[in-house]
Structures are given as C-alpha cells and as structure tokens.
Amino acid sequence: MEDKKMRENTDMTSLQKAWAVLFPCLLYYLAYNAAYLICIFVRSAMQERMGDSYGQWMTAHAAILTGMVSGACMLLGILPLTSMLRSELAERNALTGRQQAAERFELTKKVKSVFVTVLLALSASLGLNILLTLTGFADSSQAYREVADRQYGVAFGIGIVLYGLVSPLAEEVVFRGVIYNRLRRFYGPVIGVVASGVLFGAFHGNLVQGVYGTCMGILIAYVYERQGSFFFPVLFHAAANLVVYSTAHFQAVQAALFTPWGCGILLVVAGGGIFLMERERREAIGR
Question: At what angle do helices 107-134 and 207-227 cross, to 10 degrees?
C-alpha cells in the first residue's frame, strides 16, 4: 500500500498536488455556505408564514440561535470530507507503524502527552493573543473587530460548545486531518506544517486572524506531527479556543493577564511545552 501511494504521489503533477490540497478547503467553504443559505431561506420562509411575532422571537434569541446555526453549518460543511478524512487517517496510521501506535496507548505516556498538549495550547494561544493586543495589532483591522463582535456576541454556554467542540472538530478535519496529511505526503512534514498553517490563517479572511491563525496552525500541525494521533490537534484546538473565549468574558482575568509580564510568562511557558514535547519525542526514539 505504501509503495502504491508513493508511485501515485510521484506520478502527480504540481498542479494536481495543489488541487488535492486546496480542494478540501474549497469544498468545506462551499458546503458551509450552502448550509448557511438554506438556514437563511428557512428563516425567511418561516417569518413570512408566521409574521412579525416570529421575527421578534428570533431577535430576542439571536445570541443562542446564531451560535446554533453556525455550529450546524460547520458540521454539515465537513460531511463531504468524511471519506477523505478516513482515507488520510488510515494511511497515516499505516505509516506510523505498529510500535508507535502501541506506544500511544500506554497510559502514562498518554496522560503526559495530553498534559503537555493542553499546557502548550493554553499558554501559546493566550500569550499570542496578549501580544497582538498589547502591540495594537488586534485593533488595526475593522474586519477583525466585526468578526470578534459576532463571535463574542454568542450566548456563553452556546459559545463553549461551539468554540470548544464543534469548531475545533470541523476545522481540524479540514486543515490537519485532510490538508496537512496530504501536504505531508506530497512535500514532507516540514513544508506540510508550515504550508498548512499558512492556509489555516488565510482561511480566516482578515489580517489579524490570519497572523494568529497561521501561528496557531503551525503549532497544531507540529503537535500532530509529534504526537501522531488526530486526537491531539483536536484537543489542542479545543483547549486554545476555550481559554481565549472564556478569558474574554472575565474582565478581572484579562486585567491580570494582559500585561507585558503576563505575555512574557505565557510565551516562556509555551516554549517549555515545546521543550517537553521534544524531550518526550527523543525519549520515544531512544526506546
């Protein structure tokens, strides 16, 4: 199977490889927006049928409904990619080898890997957010401020589910499960890590989220490469989203963290997380 895939990769032209990488992102974008347009059509049809009372009810519950619609569209958006994901994960699992697969299920190693992944996710996401805020970069984009207002305008409980579960799962299916694995197969892990991060940043559609998304996308792909299991990029993404989203709702926490000292400490901790992950990797190779 591995030899067959290697021959297929060699036979593909550069244009075919580029299309294979970009097509999942385009497919997700089209499926998500198609689902969103259907939701808008249903809403308009119901408002016509039920009158102003329905419109008033929708307005009153907008903070809940917006998050629910967004989450549903994300899940519907990844449905066309499920067969691609299965194929990519099956091939990735075959390439990692039985010994590495067995190691991933050692309880001590798994607990340690989860701890380091979450530590890196929390510190890197908060540290980078604080850095972008303190430098004034986060306030430089009107498009970003509009996106942020929509994201934080979602009801808190709905936001926890949306940004802590649905969004990480959907985006990891597209950008790490399919796109990164294809980039890795075509060009190797280093180019795959960087290129998938750049694509992830570009997908967000504005400069501030583009920079943040690129940095985080590179880190997520790095974690996937080091840990080997698709569970870990989803875990990293979920932890990062949750801590950033939750912190934005607690002004006291923001006041304590959003300082040069807070930023520096968090970025140092993130560096420590990478060090621990590399040490764990070297220990695994040594065994």
Answer: 160
Coil/strand/helix, residue 248: coil
Rounded Cα distance, 71 and 149, in Å: 17
In this predicted structure, the answer to whether residue 276 has a pLDDT above a threshold of 70 is: yes
Other beta carbons within 10 angstroms of residue 16's beta carbon come to 12
Q: Which residues are within 8 A (CB) of 218 and not within 5 positions of it... i.e. 6 or more apart?
A: 193, 194, 196, 197
User: What is the pLDDT averaged over residues 120-141?
Assistant: 94
**pTM, entire model:** 0.90
H or E segment at 61? none
First to last CA, the chain: 27
For the stretch 58-90, pLDDT in tens is: 777 777 888 899 999 999 999 999 999 999 999
Structure tokens at 260: 């040069």
Whole-number Å distance between alpha carbons of 123 and 80 = 34
pLDDT exceeds cutoff 50 at 99:
no
Separation of alpha carbons 203 and 199, rounded Å: 6
Which pLDDT value is given to residue 282? 83
Position of tokens 């559609």? 205
pLDDT recorded at residue 61? 72
Q: Where are the alpha helices (DSSP H) in the chain?
A: 2-11, 14-50, 52-60, 62-78, 82-96, 98-104, 107-134, 142-152, 156-161, 167-172, 181-187, 189-203, 207-227, 231-247, 251-257, 260-286
pLDDT in the model for residue 97: 56
What letter would DSSP give residue 139? G
Measured CA to CA, the distance from residue 69 to residue 32 in angstroms comes to 11
Sequential DSSP letters for 250-274? -HHHHHHHSSHHHHHHHHHHHHHHH
Q: Residue 135: what pLDDT?
A: 94
Give dist(CA 240, CA 171) in Å, integer: 13
